[in-house]
């Protein structure tokens, strides 16, 4: 099976449709599938429901799709750095489902494992629990969270071989790995593609069986989400 495509647009060909649900990997601006996001923007696919830890920042990452009004709903855990996200939400233009960070990761992992729902203590007694089933186990209250299984997963890895076996780098592993399994098809972009068999099997984070389409998106410009610097003191 040929998994490697020349660019993001060709890798997404035939997969996009209005009203679809997408799982998008990344943590802040680390490990975001930016080439695939650009291709979705250029395709003009609209009314999207996107599950992602955050929505990027203004003009970067998923923030690009918010700018073009292609997103109908976000399922996220952190949105503090995106002013356009805030504006659309407060204006009633964007539906938002806030989800605790660990719960979001587990919802994606569960969906990929064929688990439709699970109980967790996280969020009990807060707005997160409103409208959800409550159940007691051993004297403790838990809420039911549904697994997420999307139409498409888009992820970013560090290195892959031609069979799609993939390695993530540091923080980028947080959400890319569970989201890779949480959909009907996974499209990945990486910084480097090497020959099959050249990666140490013990270092592979995501087996190639999960990756259906693959592109090399290099070179990348490493961006910083929020820069904090210290003023230089006089000698």
UniProtKB/TrEMBL annotation:
SMART domains linked to this entry: CoA_trans (SM00882)
The UniProt keywords, alphabetically, are:
Transferase
By what name is this protein known?
Succinyl-CoA--3-ketoacid-CoA transferase
Tell me the leader sequence span: none
Q: Which GO terms describe its molecular function?
A: transferase activity
Entry-linked InterPro entries: 3-oxoacid_CoA-transf_A (IPR012792), CoA_trans_fam_I (IPR004165), NagB/RpiA_transferase-like (IPR037171)
Superkingdom, natural source? Bacteria
Tell me the Pfam families matching this sequence.
Answer: CoA_trans
Q: Which organism is it from?
A: Blastomonas aquatica
